[in-house]
## 1
Amino acid sequence: MNALTLPLPDVAAQTSRQALPLDWVGMHGVAVPVLIQGQQLSATADAGVSLDDSQARGIHMSRLYLALEMLETETLSPPLLRRILQQFLDSHEGLSQSAALTIRTEWLLRRPALVSPLSGWKRYPVSISAHLKNQMFHVELSVDVSYSSTCPCSAALARQLIQQQFVNDFANKALEHEDVRAWLGSAKGVVATPHSQRSTATLNVRLAKGVAELPLLFLIDEAEAALGTAVQTAVKRADEQAFALANGQNLMFCEDAARRLSLALRRSDDIVGLDVRVVHAESLHAHDAVAESRWGRDPS
């Protein structure tokens, strides 16, 4: 008999020499395309199931891989994720009781400038994790939002130095409106400026049962509105000036940013839990300033 006509061996179906169930078996970093609000994006997927049959040698990873093909043609949503996870389990009947899928990508949004008619693309790193066990299904959504943070302490210290310079320059002099206006607009007048830094908020939310769409745009819009200083794309000088004004009106420590975000996202019925982490990449120090906040409520 020709060896090529013999049945191919299925080693995974063999009995394990060491009987022990496993919590998760699968693949990390599978290249997949995903559709998010009409955009087809490059993504990676971590796909796996539990191996609850302690006698089984392994799972059928190719079955997981083939189930991921549903991502190619359908918009990424909680119902789609549940169908994929159910296919994971159906294809491993008798072996697995739970399934998990995590997708990572970067969503591109075109964002307008603050004042001018310019606009440009911003990227938002996104992670979507879904789990299914005993018909209990839940989805967690994570997105990174970049913003500028200006230190309230350095702003106060800068104002004090400007006040002192004003006293030095105008001591025992009659104040003329034009002289003061010119002084305020000169480098001599503004002797100090507060320090600011590019900062990142990572929002990890747990979605309520029955949510049909991923609230990505809502998360991003709410976060940027709460912070007030989202980083910009294409700008003109008028936009840069407006950005400087926004920073001056939104002084914040990392603690302030975490509280703003936590409170802003409590209003959504689609979100039953939040874990927010903000990182201010300090320009004064060689280390970062970090704050975290989390809350949850009954998903029912």
Note: The mean pLDDT is 93.
## 2
Amino acid sequence: MNYTSLTTPAALAAFCEQQANQAWLAIDTEFIRQDTYYPILALVQICTQEGELVLIDPLALADLSPLWQLMANPKVCKVLHSARQDIEVLFQLGKQMPQNLFDTQTACVFLGYGDMAGFGRVVEAEYNVSLNKALSRTNWLQRPLSDEQIHYALDDVHYLAPLYKKLHTLLTAEQKQALTQDFAEMLNPALYQIEPNQAWLKVKGTKGLNTKQLGLVKQLAAWREQAAIGQNLPRRWVISDDAILQLAKRPARTLEALYKVPDLNAGTVRQYGEVIIEQLDLAFASPDNWPEKPANPPGLSPQEDILLQLATSFAQQVAQDNGIIVNNLYQKAGLVTLIRQQPSSLENGWRRLLLGDPLKELLNNQAWLGVVDQKIVLTKT
């Protein structure tokens, strides 16, 4: 497989300048994030509009600013598959958000691949090619890279380019317009910037906690975020979500009591014990900083409950027909707000086309449900 390797500032600058006026680039990254807070970018693979394969070696380049400028160029569409992690890496390291995105994984919803289609599965189905995924956990920081590693890395963009062109041809104008909403949301910096005081929102398992307990979670999560950033460590290496939850439910008031907290290992207590007690004391002393629990929406009326059951049945049929994970298609709250004609999460992107708009037609007496071949189908009136 022929490719160009960019390892000098001049070569990188020349390539990025050359591509600044192109319509699109197919891009993938390889990075390591095992024992650091910030990812280590190890490789950037690109397939140009002309089919040229390029490898950019971040380990050989101290200054990647030409690449960051190219990523932020709104005239060039950046084509990625399952773009979320790549965007996070590029944003955190480049300090600016990439612009003009096309995520083929999201777009593949309209080809019947579901919402979480792995790249290998799509390539095999579309091109009858089985990609070698044996190196998905390889050490991308080693140099020189083996021929097998290089081939593996380039395969992703080599097939990503024709997949993008095929999608661009097959998708309707309505589907493309819907996808622009999804892609714009992916490029929202708020998804990738975690303010320490908002870090508690990322802690899993807080449902059911009272206001005081949420205040303890908020204080501990903010401290953890700052400690992880300061030491460039994974958050879980400072303290785990499970330990934070245990401390919120049964807060320890002494160093000795910390050793009895489930999910809090002795090493963490030895290193951070005094600080943890200090953070708990701060939380107890600052009830004004405890987060407010969101008010529960009004209960369903009997008629709304009937409509919710109807909408849920149709939504489950849509999920099954399109290979979509049910919880990724809709939440109960989204269905309820749609029934109540309030702003709903189902009014944006691909979810709007597949579920939101059909449900609105049903609720507005513009369509009806029937059963064909034991499947629920919606027919417009």
Note: The two ends are 55 Å apart (CA to CA).
## 3
Amino acid sequence: MEDTSFSRNSHIPDGRVLEITTTTGCAVGCSYCPQHKFAKRQRAVSPVKYLTLEDFRRCLARVPTAIDIHFSGYSEPWLNRDCTEMVEQAHACGHGIRIYTTLVGMNERDLRRLQELPIKAFVVHLFDSGGQMNSRFVRKPYLNLFRQLLDADIPSVQFLTFGGVHPDLVKLLPAEALLRLGSLISRAGSVDRGIAKSRAPIAGGLTCVERRQFRNVLLPNGDITLCCMDFERRHVLGNLLRDDYENLFEGRDFRQIVDRMNGANGFLLCRMCEHARSKLQNR
């Protein structure tokens, strides 16, 4: 069993990150994102739609600086107008920064501010022609922002797609800059089966090949879910408005997850996840 305990001044194992969900609900409308399930479950728990800058700062103060902050989560980060300031705040506190965005909600001033920061990864999810995403966002202001991004000096920028790229973006983007991803995944069984088939559940002990149990997600009300596959809040580790980061991994909920990953009985979302592997396969 992995040792999950550490103090604020101790070494933080590599790979631990905190993903930020800045808003409940996402207008981008990717068909392969179970956004409606997340929004329904989150709204039933909390009326807070947007992560406020004040609450973000309170949560960030509880997180060791060795933890990278990823602006991604369960929805488009820049649908929250304070997102750029949150990025700047996280950097000022000494955290490594990664960004995963469709650019929706971002403006040219936001981009100029982001250019001033050492961003480890700036990943842009490109719009398709409307088959799987809400392409109404690809209008003149968006295209102007996209051109500015292409001209910006951001060494870590990447562009990815799950299929075809919107024709107005194809005209602007060099072919060699495009990263095409493979087949869609079910997000641990949360995506409509007509879009992505679920895997057969894993019995017994298992491991996460990407150690996503340490890539947790902050929600707008301060709750922390297990990972970016947990759209329905099946495993909530605590709340950073009241709990220190270290305590998330010392409480009953996380210890129960670890026990079930080691083979104990009980519900575990990981059993349906494409990133999980049976421990029997590793022998």
Note: Residues 1-12 have pLDDT under 50 and may be disordered.
## 4
Amino acid sequence: MEIMFPGWLGVGAVLAVAGVTAWVVQVRRGMGVTSLSNLRPWGSYIAGFVYFMGLSAGCLVLAGLPLVADLPAIRPYAGLAALVALVSLVIGGLFILVDIGRPERVWRMIRHGRLGSPMMWDLLLTVAYFLIGAVLLVAILADAPASVLAVLGVVAVAAGVADGVTAFVFATQVAREFWLSAVQPMAFFAAALASAGALLQLLVLGLAPSGYVDLGLHDTEPLALVTAACLGLGLLFLLSELLTLGFSRRADALRLVRAMTASWMLWVEVVTGVVAVALYLVPATRGSTAGIVVASVLALVHLAAKRVHFVASGLAVPNLDLRGVDLDRGRGGAVLRRPVELALSTGLVGGFVVLTSLGLTVMPLGVTG
């Protein structure tokens, strides 16, 4: 049995071990070893959760669509997308687990959950994602009848579109200037499809030399165009948010715009996004392996920066007036400022690499164009 991506598997394993070690330290010493606090409760763990939930949702859509409609351009990706969707969901759930701080109390989320809470909706959606992704993957591996796959495809697409529920967790935070926006569900969905498209292109190009997949560079072109469109849409949403906030001329809105534009993470997001879109759209780079690889890597960096900056922006403007408490300290949110938090976050990314590599190794998901 040939191990898929053995080099990446080794790197991922090292990061995962470091992450487990960091989690042990966090559990034993408490959340004080991270950058998180009662005043700034959300950071890189929530950014990671949103990122991998979006990746899972986007992959579910790309796995389900060709099972429902006649889309030969993306049909070969269905099996790979279903696997990535399931692994992404596991990693996203682990990000929430480490964010809780006290994993033995996770059951309280269910016991004290309210159906009127967007967070409860998100929890239920996560469970549904897992069941749908697992059943879809098994059905594809078992080469189930077309009628069965079509039904599962409809369910998978519906679940992927429902990724907007995650956005409502933020969009209903009325006290947070940047998060309270009706555009969030649409922005989340565009980012979900973009992340899925970029990663699947990297997987196909990485697996092709081993013969695991029989797909050429021309097979990635439709997915490259979809990814470019979604990235461009996300950039337009960001520009719209900044212009709308600035045009209002409200003190808090202008303060948020200044905080956002002063953040280096925003410019990483913008530059990598613009360059990735250009590389995807220019025929010369879209028609070369190096061009697609660079564009896809930049797209994933862009989307990671988007998630980190999104969480930080929601915490950039203090919304409480507490005498004697400096809410401005560390403006922009608490993200990756402590070694334990950094090691744990990167360790979970390493876990994603390990699980994906092992899944590709043990599952016959090879496809032909």
Note: The first helix runs from residue 6 to 29.
